[in-house]
Amino acid sequence: LNLSRTLVNVVSKSGSTLETLTNEELVRASFKAAGLDPGRHFIAVTGKGSPMDNPARYLRSFYMFDYIGGRYSVTSMVGAVMLGFALGFEQLSEILAGAHAIDQAAEEPDIRRNIPLLMALLGIWNHNFLGCDTLAVLPYSQALIRFTAHLQQCDMESNGKSIDRCGQSLAWQSGPVVWGEPGTNGQHAFYQLLHQGTTIVPVEFIGFRQSQYGKDLEIQGTTSQEKLLANLLAQSLAMAAGRGNANPNRRFAGNRPNCVLLADRLTPYTMGALMAVYETKIVMQGFMWNINSFDQEGVQLGKVLANEIIDHLAARRRDKNYQGTDDDLSWALLRMVDKP
């Protein structure tokens, strides 16, 4: 990596997140060791007026609104800065245009023309009425290899709640466990359970009619993209309709809930629309469950406890004879980890 031609983007809303600052200092040390001024190679995405909003340390600060959670921030400065550098302003504008189109479509009162609302209601039917605890999101595109992981955070951090907006315990299930892998790789891993397992897993397939780059070969009468799409449609059909057979091992009951999201091609516009479909679906489900989809107290608790353990570690480094109190669970746990 040529550090003299490298730009580092540091993202922290508060400008004081310990993990981010620690990693930043590690990278800054590399620049200093190479005889470079980090202040000429670092930019910041942060809240206006935060400790990172500092021209002496950063070439430029880009501001994010304090009410935007990280999982919904792809179309804010958090995502826009890096996407702008990586793809260019025109492509970034296309991502934003795709997301905006879905935001407008989500206001359509006809459920048959409102994809996020339809998916939200189907998800609640599968989860709350049919008792399906998980949801598999399976994109048939290698470019979306990390998309399901993104949705895990967006969905499970938003709707993994047990308290409603009035502070009362929920009397129903909230968000499902979201998981998945791209395309045909998953067919040779977990699809067997999806087809014949005793656990019913609803599936959301994502596919495209055309290859991403328009470079495809015809082999034995069909293109690679047509073969990929055929596999997607075959899996959806098998889950829905099943197939009978005199051999019980080869019998497929079908009636496994699934839907297919199909677009022409994976473009920046399509990517923006796809993200917005899921973001809107998740928020709509939060409304229906009467929960706050925009906080994450479970995440905050982990940070608080981690800081308590970090404080013990720092105190022990300063004073070898340091001892925490026996009724401090974080100290007791740290002592257990110390034991060989």
UniProtKB/TrEMBL annotation:
<keyword id="KW-0413">Isomerase</keyword>
<dbReference type="GO" id="GO:0006094">
    <property type="term" value="P:gluconeogenesis"/>
</dbReference>
<dbReference type="InterPro" id="IPR018189">
    <property type="entry name" value="Phosphoglucose_isomerase_CS"/>
</dbReference>
<dbReference type="GO" id="GO:0097367">
    <property type="term" value="F:carbohydrate derivative binding"/>
</dbReference>
<dbReference type="GO" id="GO:0004347">
    <property type="term" value="F:glucose-6-phosphate isomerase activity"/>
</dbReference>
<dbReference type="GO" id="GO:0048029">
    <property type="term" value="F:monosaccharide binding"/>
</dbReference>
<dbReference type="InterPro" id="IPR023096">
    <property type="entry name" value="G6P_Isomerase_C"/>
</dbReference>
<dbReference type="GO" id="GO:0005829">
    <property type="term" value="C:cytosol"/>
</dbReference>
<dbReference type="GO" id="GO:0006096">
    <property type="term" value="P:glycolytic process"/>
</dbReference>
<dbReference type="Pfam" id="PF00342">
    <property type="entry name" value="PGI"/>
</dbReference>
<dbReference type="InterPro" id="IPR001672">
    <property type="entry name" value="G6P_Isomerase"/>
</dbReference>
<dbReference type="InterPro" id="IPR046348">
    <property type="entry name" value="SIS_dom_sf"/>
</dbReference>
<keyword id="KW-0312">Gluconeogenesis</keyword>
<protein>
    <recommendedName>
        <fullName>glucose-6-phosphate isomerase</fullName>
        <ecNumber>5.3.1.9</ecNumber>
    </recommendedName>
</protein>
<dbReference type="InterPro" id="IPR035482">
    <property type="entry name" value="SIS_PGI_2"/>
</dbReference>
<dbReference type="GO" id="GO:0051156">
    <property type="term" value="P:glucose 6-phosphate metabolic process"/>
</dbReference>
<keyword id="KW-0324">Glycolysis</keyword>
